[in-house]
Hints:
The protein has about 240 residues and is an alpha+beta fold. It is built from 8 helices and 10 strands. It starts with a helix and ends in a 7-residue tail after the last strand. GO terms for molecular function: DNA binding; DNA-binding transcription factor activity. Keywords: DNA-binding, Repressor, Transcription, Transcription regulation.
Amino acid sequence: MRNKYLVIYQEMVQQIEQRKFKANQFLPSENELTDKYETSRETIRKALNLLAQNGYIQKIRGKGSMVIDRSKFDFPVSGLVSFKELADKMGEKPVTTVHRCQLINPARYLKDQLKLKGKNQVWEVIRSREFSGQSIILDKDYLVEKYVPSMTEDIAKKSIYAYLEDVLGLVISFAKKEIVVEEPTEEDRDVLDLEGFHNIVVIKNYVYLDDASLFQYTESRHRPDKFRFVDFARRIH
């Protein structure tokens, strides 16, 4: 006979997958579940812990257990696509909010990322992306003014790459990418809906033109539950 907490776990998984408990909805309290299943609180906690470990719920201190939206967007790791191009393929219209669009004198960190020497100004564009009423991506773009002499909030809200290629005539060639998992910064928590989440996935892009000039550095900071980072690999013999 299976342990009772496994039976409860399987039943609750079925209820979540059948959407009897919907995404972002809180499960009944531990006391309510204890009464419902006529078992101990320890057994209920074991079942809830297993649900959390397998990505069905997120425990939020002081509030309870929230059902995680398990639908994920495929995010290509090796491709070099704009967010607008990716969003068009998703079939879901996101909302982009531009928080900053300004010309700055880059600090040492940015100079190092962009391999800048001497006095160079950089466009700083900070945008957040909202899906289904939740802010889940923070994009931080830095573009060297030498290659991008002008930038506006309207351009940033629509598509920077469309502007760079179609208006400025730049030929974007390739990018080096790094993927890291970090603790959210204060800015992440201010801008994104991160309650109950303790990590974010950061994709760092170093983007080059066709003459191998590094002109853009980007940090795309993602809430971890919404994205599946995918790639295609072929073994070379």
